[in-house]
Sequence to fold (327 residues):
Amino acid sequence: RAGRASPGLKAQHLTGLTLVRDLAGGRLDGGEFGSVEITFRPGQLRCGQFSADTRTAGAVCLLAQVAVPCTLFAPSLVSLNLRGGTNAQMAPQIDEYTEIFLPNISKFGFEFEFEVVRKGFFPKGGGEVNFFLKPVKQLKPITMTDPGVVESIYGWSFAAGNLPLRVADQLTSAAKQHILTADIPALRGVPVNIETYKEDSGSAPHSGSGIVLVAKTSTGCILGGSALGAPRISPEETGMKAAEELLEAVECGGCVDKYIQDQMIIFMALAAGSSTLVTGPVTLHTETAIHIAEKLTKARFKIDNCPENNRAWVITCQGVGLVNHHL
Fold:
């Protein structure tokens, strides 16, 4: 974060580091708001119940992303109670996390359950999600090389708080029209079903709106696109943005979308054996994740052009086969 206008740790980053410290039974030095350098010394991974609260609209899903790899090698079951923003800009929405991210990473061979207690939006936050994760002996390698053909497109659009249901209707209508009128031969005749609803005031007391879209293929690939409503952006623009993200994911010919791509790296590095993943254009986040994973483990990655599709790339990894000696 050195190049940012406001460098150093923010509340969300500090909360995530503290959560990992607790999960790993470790020591964290320099863990202060605004800190530009930390030292982390891990100890023994722990099981049980853990909680983390950004006390802002900081993204709950980013807390979960940093915690999940630790929980999978814990001695026993881990439950996470995470509080903050469930639907925040620059982070996965909770529906995106549970319906796209978790199903993709669970292909490495682990089980999970979740409970969305309450949704929270910018600027108030106040969201709450519980995750229940079962550890594994080892992660399995993946082979995701055939994106298949899209068989269905579905999703959810919502309005909450003071926003009327028609906002969600407008999100749905714009997204659906953009998908159906797109000149993409692979999507001709593919059904598009988007559920539209008004959030209950008890589970989403503050105002917010958003849409999450999912494309499922014949080979089990799950691609996504999403967008959050904003005060100065029309619902129609928001719906089209989500649809455009999904269309981009479909057209690039990858087995995951660009936002899942980098999240697969740590699991490929820890898995037992060789993993292969076909993706769209490799993102800077993915390049960074590979660099860090190779620094922290003995895993080795390779990126090549996809011979079957000049728009796609092949990421291969020889994982280190980390073993959970507690099981």
Remarks:
- The first strand starts at residue 27 and ends at 29.
